[in-house]
Write a structure and sequence with these properties.
Length: 380
């Protein structure tokens, strides 16, 4: 009985340590070399002492896309959350009512005719105080406004990412809730995973199925490309940019990337100009920085008045990079031509950038017009 047990142990050890051979040759197949099968792993460099078959084939195909198991984390971290804090408070006036600015609290309470009145439009007021009832607001300019039909604006706290090193692959943010599918295409099985807004994903591959781009974010994990704002690192300065500092604005993806010493140092989602107020493609330089700015358009058909627009940097006429406290979402075109950022992101960029730094604006899709005659108006 003891001898039988010893023999069984010997057979078990032999099974463990005897190298596994590749599949027996098929008659007429001369490719069989007799080599052992490699241990399951990614083999990006040709190996001569084993055959990378079976699971290794799959792992190697993922590795060629930059995807390891487990996935390699982005070399990134969040900026200081204190950058979101600003000393200004804002009030959104009713878009359908003509905004009235009273010279005194008594005039505002009495709805006096003694008021500076504008056309209805897109109006945000920066206020410094309220009356004891909280119904009347003292603006930064010293005028009083009524609180009728208006509301205090709460701005987005979204922040992009800072990088220790340039990532090896593309990445991005979802800007709405989207399902994850097991393959590219609307008919692919649903994985049951739903990504929430502002989820950070890595993008390893993109396929176009029936004119729709799909991004691979993991093994058998695909999301619709148009619902993800993607950054693809490009560390070579664009044509026309001199030096190793520049800001890249991608109009197709609605992303902004910052490069210093030919390394990606910051990236985020933005909102650029919507038709017919496109953000113009081209290579520009920042020519003015203003910690706060009042933006205004007196055209009654498109009136807007925005007080204390924070961290404004002009680079193309009236078009600027700036914080947009009136935006709660980023990732798709919405502005009058400016590059809108969240408050925290605009503060980081304002602190990093200097007058003379390059701004490279491009649209890889080629859909944004470039005719200079289309870029003469104001912007916010």
């Amino acid at each position: 009985m003891r001898l039988k047990a010893v023999w069984l142990c010997f057979l078990l050890l032999a099974t463990i340590y005897i190298p596994v051979r590749a599949q027996e040759p098929v008659p007429g197949d001369e490719s069989y070399s007799g080599a052992v099968v490699c241990e399951p792993d990614a083999y990006l460099v040709e190996t001569t002492d084993c055959l990378p078959l079976g699971p290794s084939t799959y792992l190697t195909s993922l590795a060629r896309l930059g995807l390891t198991l487990p996935p390699r984390p982005l070399p990134a971290y969040k900026p200081n959350p204190d950058l979101v804090k600003i000393p200004w408070r804002y009030f959104h006036m009713d878009d359908l009512l003509p905004p009235k600015f009273y010279s005194s609290l008594a005039d505002a309470q009495a709805k006096s005719e003694n008021a500076l009145t504008y056309a209805p439009g897109f109006v945000y007021i920066s206020y410094q105080n309220t009356d004891p009832t909280g119904h009347f607001f003292l603006t930064q300019s010293g005028h009083w406004i009524r609180g009728d039909g208006n509301r205090i604006q709460e701005y987005s706290t979204f922040q992009g990412l800072l990088f220790r090193d340039t990532p090896r692959n593309a990445f991005g943010w979802t800007f709405e809730q989207i399902p994850v599918r097991s393959a590219p295409g609307y008919n692919a099985p649903d994985t049951g995973v739903m990504l929430q807004s502002w989820t950070i994903v890595q993008v390893y591959h993109t396929e176009v199925i029936k004119d729709t781009a799909w991004n691979m974010i993991g093994p058998s994990q695909w999301v619709e490309g148009r619902k993800v704002a993607v950054v693809t690192p490009h560390t070579t300065p664009p044509e026309g940019v001199t030096g190793d500092r520049w800001i890249e604005v991608n109009l197709e993806e609605q992303t902004l990337a910052v490069y210093q010493d030919r390394e990606l140092v910051f990236a985020t989602m933005i909102a650029t100009g919507a038709e017919p107020f496109w953000t113009r493609p081209g290579v520009f330089q920042i020519f003015e920085k203003k910690e706060t700015e009042t933006m205004r358009n007196n055209d009654p058909s498109d009136f807007y008045f925005l007080e204390n627009v924070p961290y404004t940097m002009y680079f193309d006429g009236a078009r600027a990079l700036h914080g947009a406290y009136w935006r709660t979402r980023f990732g798709y075109p919405q502005s009058h031509g400016c590059v809108n950022l969240s408050i925290g992101d605009s503060r980081w960029l304002f602190d990093w950038a200097a007058v003379g730094d390059w701004v490279y604006v491009h649209d890889p899709s080629g859909q944004t017009p470039t005719d200079p005659a289309l870029y003469t108006g104001g912007a916010y």
